[in-house]
Amino acid sequence: MKAIPTILPSLLLFAGAFATSGTVHATPTPTAGDKLVIEAGRVITLAGEDIMDGVIVIEDGRIVAVGPASEIEKPWDAPTIGGPELVAFPGFIEAHSSRGMDRANENVDVAPYLNIRDSIDPVAFYFEDCLRYGITTVNVQQGPSCVIGAQGMIVRPTGMTVEAMLVRPEYGLKMSVIPKRGKSRATQMQVLRKAFSDLRSYLETLVKKERDQRGLAAREALFQGRELEGEDNEGRAMKSGAWTVDGLDIIPRGAIDEKQAPLLAVVEGRTTVFLHCGAAVDVGHALELARTNGFLTKSVLVIRPECWRAADLIAEAGVPVILEGGLMHTRRDPVTGEEQETFVPLVLADAGIRFALSSQDPTRRSLWYQAALAVGRGLERSAAIQAVTRTPAEILGLGKEVGSLETGKLGNVVLFSGDPLSVTSWVERVIIEGEEVYDRRADLRNKQLLEGRQPAGTQGSVNSSEEDATEESKEDSDEDESEAEEN
Amino acid sequence: MGRPLALGALLLTALVCVPAAGASTPRVASSSPGTTLVAVRAGTIYCVEENRVLEGGAVILIEDGKIIALGEGLAIPPHAELVDYGPDAVIVPGLVAPFSSYAIGRSSRYSASPGTLAVDNFDPYEDFVGGLSGGVTSAYITPSESRLISGVGALVKLAGKNAAERIVNPRAALHVSVDALARNAPGFWDPPLPATAETEMGYSKPQLPATAMGAIVALTELVDGVRAKKPMDPVLAAEYGSNALLDLTPIIEAGTPWRISAVSANEIRAVLRFAARKKLPLILEKGLEAGELAKEIAAAGVPVIFRVPFQPGGAFADRGKGRDANWGRLDVPALLAAEGVRVAIASRHPIDLLFSAGLATRGGLDKADALRAITLTSAELSGAADRVGSLAVGKDADLCVLGDAPFSGFSNVLATWVDGRVAWKAHATLATVIEVEELHVGDGSVLRPGALLIEDGEIVEVGERVSRPRGARIVRGAACMPGIIDAFGHLGLAGSKTVPATDFDLSSIVVPGDRLARRVARHGITTVVLTPRAASTGGAPIMAYKPAADEFESQIVRRLTALRLNWGDKDPLKAGKSVKALLAKAAGYDKKWREYEKAIAGWTPPPLKPTEVESEEEEDKGDAEEEDADKEETKKKSKKSKKKKKKEEEVLEPDPLTGRWVSAIASEDGEELSEGFKMRLRFALGEGSGEVLGNLRCARASGLLVDLQGYWDRDEKTLKLTGLGDRGWLALELALDEDQLTGTLLGIGLELEIAAKRTTKDYVVAERAERRSEEVEKVKAPKGKPKMPRLDPKLEPLRAALKGELAIVVEVNREDAILECVETFESYGIQPVLLGARDVHLVALDIVDRVAGILIKGGVRRALPKRGTDYLTPYGDLQNIGIPVAFHSEAEEGASDLSLVASFAVANGMSPTGALRALTGDAARMMSIEDHVGRLARGLDADVILLDGPPLAPGTSIERIWVDGKEIR
Known about the structure:
The structure holds two protein chains of two kinds. Chain A is of the alpha/beta class. Helix content of chain A is 29%, strand content 21%. By secondary structure, chain B is of the alpha+beta class. Chain B is 25% helix and 27% strand. Chain B has 25 helices and 42 strands. In chain B, strands 1, 2, 3, 4, 5, 6, 15, 16 and 17 form a nine-stranded mixed beta sheet that branches. In chain B, strands 7-8-9-10-11-12-13-14 form an eight-stranded mixed beta sheet. In chain B, strands 18, 19, 20, 21, 22, 40, 41 and 42 form an eight-stranded mixed beta sheet that branches. The chains are: A alpha/beta, B alpha+beta. At the A-B interface, helix 4 and helix 7 of A face helix 2 of B.
């Protein structure tokens, strides 16, 4: 509480500086030194028991101590935030999202050479909302309207540039089994299979040519303006659990066409693949593709609720899933006409499938609500919370970095005004890597929503985000309305 | 008034259970949980394998979704679950649709796309209900139809628990097409990525084929390309996509059949030549003009999947007006089969497969071959005959259960089994179809053959052939006739000799489900016209009811259907006097009512205090003018409150009646009855006219709601109401004393004192009396309201008879009395039914067309006094001159002999159809119940007797009886 007087003015100052863009956007807040002490009436660590009246000490962006206030020595020179009325919680982790980009999908069927980096819009409302909902890590991947999509990346929803947001650049590759517009499942699968057979014949041809004319690959690469240095100039035998091309070690890795290289990384098991499945039938196809091309262990299925009917296949394959597009599946029995409702997280939990919940859902934006809904439907509270914290962290390979409040992990802390899964709780503050990036008292948009006042200097703000219509938040439309009234 | 309603409910539940035991619904004999052993039984089983047909209740034993045994007289293991479809049901193998569009999605861009797999488009988590409802259990799927090489087709199950096992053959055939449908492959264009100076942007290139010859060239190129075993020629790659040869190679190496769709004769010839040259395993598909090439096709040894060129349920399609246009023939399979070609028959949609195969039997295709064409042959051509297509040990338990032999022309799939489970079954229907060699309608006409459709206890259709709803029970027999009517019987009186008054409710003495009554009913007597044993001078009521009924609702045919009178001609001096007096009294009563009705229709009461209303309105206006603009709101308020006040005045003051009233009932003895006998009344007073609408409900029989209608006398504060309840007429005469209505309730044999108190005033009436036109107002001076005559429940039936709504049965015997009686009734416009009529033969010609019918005692054969062996046969004689007669028992359970009496009448010269009419239709008409029973006609109660021979023949006996569509014997 002591720190507030110092932080608040600076925040307000900052907000004023960016007032023309109408955001209170997540921006690194200057803190004294690299230390921060967070006090909370209750600390939910997700690693052992909750700590009552606890303290979290963050140094250089990482947690150095978590424990009861009585046991932890607070550095004398660190600013302290929080208070006994707040609940500290590790940030939620969005395991898969196609928002925060200028557009979610590209037109070309097979485009693994695309990179999300070039599409992410740091000032998108989505990231701002993430903070409001306590999401501290986001895996941004291309949308499902593709065959083989772009390389994704993991970001934190704060920062004015993509570089400032980075957690993991070039993380994961998107593939979709859902038929792209203009395709049937058969032709979609045909293109997917062809992409890999094309890769294979490309590599075989490359090796054959190289054998005929030594150094051809390097020369061609050079001709195309790619200089091969270091690792790129070395050849490496192909390692894959499915199929290999003999003699690939003679090809400098950098000489491999940039259109094919990402897929080679997939076959060699170096890239996590997010396989988008729209229906139960897609699950079988996705797993077949992963098996025949050796990336089953690096596969994550992004499933819609109706995929639950293939739960046995998912469990057998042992791949984790990310559930998006709702939690409930409703189906009318074609013979009897009866409506059957299935609460999918329960099915997944019963089948022993590792799953994360996603807020990628036209009607909801927050992970806490998905988790609360799951608890309401009978999922164990710990399992529901795990599905929005630890499991997504593990799926994203960040198991040692985020997902709980433990010594050594990143200093991502969300301070709630009450229980994280309660509808009456607010996200009061968000700390990412030891930097406070959100304070509700300074959240102008939130104020505007609650108090109905247009904050000074924000009039005529432009909507810088071109999110899909379905992703327009309620707040946005409210704002538009109030603007219209003012005008 | 209180009836044991619980009994009715019990019986109702019993009835609901009855259909479950019906012949065509499965009967589960025994089941023990945890077992997967199922036995399915049906009258006939077509195995298709070796053309085996099992008859006489054959059984299929299924374990874990496979057939483990089948045969006639197979012992069913005790722990097996038995599903019995009854002796009429027929089981054929689950149909294998040789074509379906279930996996057709967006076609590939390339005209040759052997890498497109139909299984990828198949959703194994979906049940394809359409096909299942048509008896189809497996279907060939293809990813497309509109490409030269559309892809690889597969054979899949349309239902099933295990997604993987539903794919029977993932590579059933390479789906190729040279017909016009495949010549529309759009040009395609692969944009180079990235486009550089070296790689041009390119443009959309048209693809082969546009003609049949183009198609053959393209196919030849591709096959040669694969056989050359060289990397793909860049020209070919540009033409067919870079993977065409790569994908085609394993297909050719595996010897997968090429299923080439060709329609016209030239296409078929071209395809035959191509396959022969390239030595490819060929299956011809569509083959619309294959008939004329039957010999060539047979010589090539190529099987044909004939697509029936008619799409049931689709829009009418014009086939082309040119001279060369081929309009498609249905006899192609017959022509091909005659030459020894293996034929499968396909329909556009699997749901129509059975029907389409039936069409394809034209031209002489054997029905067994047609069945084979949609089961085993189809399975063989899709490379799946090891699992599906016939019923044999070891094969999948895919069954199609039909209600009738296949190709009988009716949509009769009862259930479809996939892998030993019911995947689809017809909605349970209670419809029954009776098919007989001769159907006696009951009005003298006979249908040979005849059929009858019964639904919901009613006859829905009668004809030589009737529609057959899915899942309907089919019953066959030699003959059927309407249920017999005892035109004048005592069944139900239980010996009673009481002579009740005409307002007595006879329905209170018959009990549904009475054992004796049902026993009589099982002799075919489905309706009894119940009459008391005698009649007083005021007449006696006659009721028609069904002795077989086991619930109140269906028991009574007509509560008061006729009146019994006695001419009293034993004493010539008194003959007819009482009847004449009664008729005169009734006529007077009727006249009074008619006059009253006429008068009340033309009477309009003076309007209600019109001056007062007007002045108030004026006041309002004045007020408004006076008020300031500032006080607008208060003005509005005051206006509102005034209006409200006005409304209250209008409704409350002149309307002391509208609302709900509750009354306790005191019995005739003055004894207070229990709380349950509270009577609830609701009234609504019409605006101004004094007309009152309302209803009465007694708590103990809450289902009994009687609509009341009557008039309120404002001056005398009296209320007279009448209403027709289930049990007869009710009349209420009430007087308002302060806020209590007191008076009497008359009718249904009761006379009750009523004292009702108003509980609410808020009875909103849907219909209010209409205002009379002003013209009438002028004619009728508002002198005063016409007075309502007193209602006499005892005379009400006679009034109805005078209107022609009831029949009159009058007992008269002497010839002069008969004539006098007929004349008397004629003067009142009534045609009576003569009962007894001993001397009717003497005056028969005089009374033709003047009587409704005659019920003669001993009318079958009567010895003439002193004439030796010369007999009178009045029934036959009267019928011959056009006077309707009816058989009647004048007995209780003796009614069961009615059909024997009728047989005896036939033996004595009465015409058999005439005797049947006298038992059924004529009896019904005479007793004015012909719109309920008596004939087999649309809309009438389904009272049907099924016989094993011509009706009324001495050797014919009853096989089955339905009453209201429910089988009682």
